[in-house]
Amino acid sequence: MAANIGLEPKAVKASKTVLNNLLADHFVLLAKTWNYHWNVKGVSFHSYHIFMEELYNGLIEDIDDIAERIRSLDERPIGSLQGYLEHNRIKEHCDSEPLPEAKEMLAILSEDNDTLIREIRKDIEQLEKEEDTDDAGTTNFLEDMIEKKEKTAWMIRAYLEK
Ligand SMILES: [Fe+2]
Prior knowledge:
Mean pLDDT: 95
Helix content: over 70%
Number of strands: 0
CATH class: Mainly Alpha
Family: Belongs to the Dps family.
CATH superfamily: Ferritin, core subunit, four-helix bundle
Bound molecules: fe (ii) ion
GO molecular function: ferric iron binding; oxidoreductase activity, acting on metal ions
Organism: Odoribacter laneus YIT 12061
Radius of gyration: 17 Å
Domain Ferritin/DPS: 19-162
Structural class: mainly alpha
Protein name: Ferritin/DPS domain-containing protein
C-alpha cells in the first residue's frame, strides 16, 4: 500500500537523496571507526579501544534510524557497500595507507564527525530551499541528528584534551 502522508513526490525524492547520502557517510565512518578500534595501540589502548566502541555503536544506531526514516517515506535505502561508496562524503581510510597513532585516529574521527554536522546543516538548507518540499519529518529528524552529533563532537574534543 502506497504511503499517503501528504508529501509531494518531489519532496520525497529530495529527502531520499539527502538521507541516502547521509546513510552512505555513516557506513564509511562506521568501517573507519571500527578499523581504528581494532588497530589502536599504545599505553592508553584500553580507553581508546572502549571509547571508539562507543562511537561505532552510536553510528550503528544512527544507520538504523536513517534507513528507517527512508522507509517511513516509503522509499528504499541504499543497501550495498558499492552504493555507499558511490554516495559517501566521508573519506575512507584505505588499507594501503599506514594507520595513525591513537590520538591522531581520534582527531581524524573528530574531523569526520564535524564534517557530518556541516553536511547535515547544508542538507537542511537545501531541503528548505526547494519549493514544494516541506518534509517537516525529515527536517526535524536531521535537526535532532545535528544535536546528537554535536554532543559526540564535544565528547571527542574533551577526550583529546585529557
Ligand atoms: Fe570490539
